[in-house]
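Data availability excerpt. The first of two example chains:
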Amino acid sequence: MKAVLTLPLLVAVISSAAAQTSPPKPVVTGLVLDPTEASVAGARVSLRRADGTVLAITTSDAAGAFQFERLAPGTYKIGAEHEGFQPATMQTRVGLRSPASVIIRLNVAEVRSEVSVTERAAELSTDPAANRDTVALNRRALDDLPIFDQDYVGTMSRFLDPGSVSTGGVTILVDGVESSRAGVSASAIQEIKINNDPYSAEYPRPGRSRIDIITKPGSSAFHGTFNFIFRDYHLNARDPFALRRPFEQRRIFEGSLTGPVGRSKKMSFLVSANREEEDLRAIVFAEGVSGVIQTTVLAPARNTEISGSLTRQVGEEHLISIRGLYTDRAIRNQGVGGFNLPEVATNFEDREDMIFFNHRGPITGKFYNMFRFLVARQHTPTTSVNPGPKTVVLGAFSGGGAQGDRLQTENHIAFNEIVVWSGQKHTVRFGINVPDISRRGLDDNTNTSGTYTFSSLADYRALHPFSLVRQSGNGHVVFIEKVLGGFVQEEFKVRPNLQVAIGLRYDWQNYFHDNNNVAPRGSFAYAPGGSRKTVIRGGSGIFFDRTGPQPIFDLIRYDGYRLLQYVITNPVYPDLNAVGPTSVVRLDPAVKLPYLVQFGAGIERQIANSTTLTLSYFGTRGVNLFRSRDVNAPPPPGYLARPDPLSSVWRQIESSADMIAHSLEAGVRGNVTRYFTGMIQYILGRAYNSTGGNPAMGPRSTLNSFPANNYDLSGEWARADFDQRHRFNLLGTITTGRYFKLGVAVSLYSGQPYTMTTGRDDNHDGLANDRPAGVARNSLQGPAYADTDVHWSRDFYFVRAKKEKGPMATLGMDAFNLLNHPNYAGYVGVLSSPFFGKPVAAFPTRRLQASVRFRF
């Protein structure tokens, strides 16, 4: 209903803007587009006379729009250029009236191994999407930098802000449509960005939690890339928790091919394929009844992805494309490592098919339309290797069986409809986002034999567990998930050096009966003086959360009748037929969708011809954050019995937690020195909240966070799980000569906190998260993290006369964790554990990776 009511508002806004911007003289407006479904923001657009004389220069805004005002009748040439694309020029005729909007389409540049920052001056712009604290990697940078296993999303994730990530996980946009991953092979990706236009009303989440992926378009000429990547255990350093280097090997075969369809100049194709074969070993470091357990377990994985797309230009201004994706993944012995012994392994498979459809082109006059549509299906079974009951000894080992059998299916669609209106000083952008309408299914056969939890090895020897979780009944669930959003945003130039953007967004999700999710957004950019070498930016906005499907699955299947979950304290061990009062999952009647209030201000300064310095402050307030609470837990002071003895856990999903985070960020981008080109980022930050979990690690980590005492939440306000005081990232290339060019990535982070627990269940709620009296959550400090990765490559040209435009081969070598710095993880906070205060796992040691690339 509210979405319908906004239509008159949209019409009023557009009509008002049009009335205010009737030009006294003809105006030329236009859009800069790439051959994909993305606008090109920040393009340098020039207006010239027919003889080549430059009359004016501007920059395309967030929608790719530009304009030149007060033009005399005549013939003009309009040119556009942007890093990573070939320059393009179009001619237009101006009469007594303004001509139709000009569409300038940029084709991908045939770049090889140049640096990602051009020699042209780093001109600053007041457009909302031209913020210089954007982290962006174009195709050249992706080829030159050390990217582990070509996992570009993983590499970029180090620049995300975990406090801005939604409960459902990181937001990934592929050509403007939300997706679970890139959907093409690595060589078919053109550009990746983080924090582009951070306060835009078009997106549900802030820019610092969103990864934008732009794929390569088709081409009018044949071009191809083939990559082979190889790693072997002979080239790796030994893991500190392994007795010896285990046999490991990884092979990646990946490539893409693009070109015209037949002799057509308006229809092209892109085919990409990726095959990953990984034979790794999980490292177990635990303690059993007979002492320390150190072993390795083979955990092979296979992944095949094939995608193909067709792009068709209709007329001079419309573009239609369709892309299909097939994915087949399989992992054996998943979940083994650290305390998890080989018998708790599961075998995982995932089959997914997707089809993307995109259309863009003008509607009429100054209106431009973009429509994007996705349809997908997914089939994901997980099977336990060992069907026996699971045994968990806190801080020592997990064995028995995995109890992880389940089948999850999904059939869903997503689409965007966005309209852009461009005027003399105004650009209005409005539309609807439907990130998910899906039919989701789950067959839950987990814990049919139960999971027994022991406080210590002594209790395990005495066969005295403190809890048993077991399930029986009907675990089959099917439901329809609906997630909808709509927005309107206006960008207007108050003065030539001052631009303001204001927007309004509405988000809605079914099952959570919260219909008042209106989110205003606003930002400004001001360039004092006439040199445009300094830009001051600021903005704020409200960003509503959404949960993903997991809590809805829980609400339906744990209704007390369908799937019966028994949480039994002090059970008999073993008892495969144990039953008791069943558990229930319910929503708090006052539940609301959580939201963030994020605000910030910053200054950008061009300090050299191609170098920019940024200094920014960001503040984030999380309101109504999710957590779970057992409202049927035994009450104090004795914690003797549940208020309703006929029921077990009443897990109530609440929006009762809060968060406050502050960060000060400094960055340098461009030609930092004579020899180094790239980006350097330092963040000084602090984050406190009253719920556990790291949203960047997946939705279950936050929604399943229980307080230590369900009746006393005072100890929950503490450092967030993802809180790190200092973060330093360096990403770029070092060039000192013709044959010496290194891609370098350096990450230096302060340690994250972890929680001290007793290992006992003194309050008899079935959970082992009790803390000593007076000890708050996350009171212990984890270790710092340091990593240095490098990439070296050498190009070989088959036709030296053509060099960059001819066929070539590239040999490369990567070293990850070059200095072999030990980065320990998995610190144990359980007081009853023999490993208390010690790590039981480590991030990977030094690994060398060889690669061969052929390109034409």
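And the second chain:
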Amino acid sequence: MAAGHIILARAADGSVTATSEDGRAEAVPDLAAYLREHPGVRWVWDDTTRWYPALLAQGVRVDRCHDLRLCHVILRNSVLTAGSALAAAPAGPWDEPLGAIGGGDGLFDLEEPVVLDVVAEFRLQRDAVAGTADPGRIARLLAAESAGALVAAELTFAGMPWRADVHDRVLTGILGPRPAPGERPACLAELADELRRILDAPDLNPDSQPALMKALTRAGLRVSSTARWELRRIDHPVIAPLLEYKKLARLLSANGWHWLDTWVSGGRFRPTYVPGGVVTGRWASDGGGALQLPKEVRSAAVADPGWKLVVADASQLEPRVLAGMSRDAELARAGQGDLYDGIVRSGAVSKRDDAKVAMLGAMYGATTGDSGRLMPRLARQFPRAIALVEHAARAGERGERVTTMLGRSSPVPGGAWQLAQSAALGEDAGEDEASRARGQARAWGRFTRNFVVQGSAAEWALCWMGGLRSRLQAIAGQRWLTDGPHLVFFLHDEVVVHSPAEDVEAVVAAVRESAADAGRLLFGETEVTFPLTVAVVDHYGEAK
């Protein structure tokens, strides 16, 4: 086994076995005590969500781990490890999501429980990494992904400080007093009455999409949906109150009193994060909606007395990652400060808004309107950066996979896509088949174009959080996780640290140093900078 690793396995009866690097296995009657007796180890286990929350509850913090399930997904699908035994093996239980194999807190809740061979899986993963042309590249990704799993568990355990009374005041100020069960808040009730009056639909339930569409059609409005972008194009008295109703109803549904009762306890908001929950490697949320926390309620995230919230977000992260991936020196120099202002100074475009539109179009594949008009100028000024995303787009259009900076690869298109492309090449294919195939090819090209950038940005964020976690632990010293500065919130390119006031200066420095280190981990020594906007506040709403 690799030096410094101990593999933990749990049998069907719940007993735990530890296998050391020389292959010796021993029973572990007290897991928490065993981990305390072995500091500095990288623990190998099947799934961090099965092990770490219980350890945290017992006062045990893990420095490093190797999450076999998260790493299996990466190695199984990466083009870098396509020739490995792991990638070539038939699908098995390691390819199933945790809940598909067992429920509860483990894999062993079925009538015939599945016990995974963690030692064999670790050997396969180690061999897959060793067999690549650049083992250090994907090894960094596996380490970052596993560190992210530890961070996710600690975020849930620590929780974001949250004042229920402040949240209630915010909701009351916007929606009116908390209603009785089954009733609408006063503001929504008034808007519903106004919609019924304007549409002459006295029984209208505006929360029912079919009923709302029927009432709008009867009023002479030709709409295919009630999407905000479509409604805004219509000039009619019902549009303003309808948009307001939809906005407030969304707040009530996503972060209203029910959300407050469900997700806030003991003065903490404890969402469930899912590392690698998106195909690009971005995190998802499996409860609490942490990745969609609206500005209206952020003032309820209030630091404890004597503490502060340190809020940091990475400025213009994705275009900076593109500059690093492509080694585009011109784009890197444009990013020495505000990147969009730098694009204007380069002469590519004349206005900052144009720079933003053009760069977003390059990364997301917008080929019409202002983006399409400005793209040629961007390509002339930053040829390496634009060539990288264009190459990724062409690969996607051909049905090929693309890969992030550290080695996460995109999926192949699905069966419907393949059938459409085949149909367009058939002897009897007409213009309809050809047009359908071209449209689907371009759509997949837009996906792969963004995959390489968004996925690499997710890798940067993982490295940032992992490095920051270690630095915060060093600042805390012998203090327990929640007694010293600790991460409490993450949102793609933004982190929030809850810190004792006396540690704030060190925390701010740690946040910035970790961002710089993340850039070096991905791109080595480069001109690309990753500046942060950092705010030290009493409540989260002050940072926005």
